[in-house]
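Team,

Forwarding the record for the chain on the shared tracking sheet. I've put the sequence and predicted structure together so nobody has to dig through attachments.
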Amino acid sequence: MKVASDLMVDIPTLHYDDYVTKARSVLRDDVFREVYVVDEKGRLKGYLDISDVLRVVDTKSNVTIKGFVREAARVGPGTSLAEAGVAILNARTNSAAVVDEDGVYQGGVLFSELFPVLISRRTIPGRVEDAMSREPVTSAPDEPIHRIYSLIVTSGFTAFPVVQKNETIGVVSRRDLLRAGNVRISVKNQADTTVERVMTTPVISVTPDDTIAAASRLMVEHDVSMLPVVDEKKRLAGVIDRHDVLSGRLP
């Protein structure tokens, strides 16, 4: 049976004295939502995620990452994949650090890579309405980026449905903001760059009556972490993400 080391990837690492601007560059250019922080001996000290680096909008800032480091989910190389999933769910992260018996960082297990393996091993019971988050925070397409930027930083959510006239027309995520090269300037200057310019379309959605298993397959097929949940009139009823799918459903 596969264990954590079988899915381990080389997630970038930083040190306490690295600048936030460096962390932002790494997270913008790589596929990772989180990077790990190690000491001079390679021992794991914590992690930093996209929301953390979004808090500093000055492109010339000399702020170091030390004050933004959080406690990381950690597993051993021989940890089962189910246990690795539980560690990620408990920490509400998108990865877990793999460390040896001395706490030295070896690599990381991505939830996006772990998720398809875990759902393939069992039939996830229930319907979307049983697991979805209700009354999600949403955005309008004409809202200024700086408001959504602030919401992402303060809420911790990874993405928001974009709603126009009660219909979900897109999704705006943390990565969308980082990929848009002019967004930091817009935020800093309170400019009127709108969500519509950076949101992802078309929308992949599910209904409350769809099975959780079907929703999880859509997440894997389209490589997305969150799906809007819409009713028969295409109105937003909630959202469901990878954590919602597996929460309480792993041994």
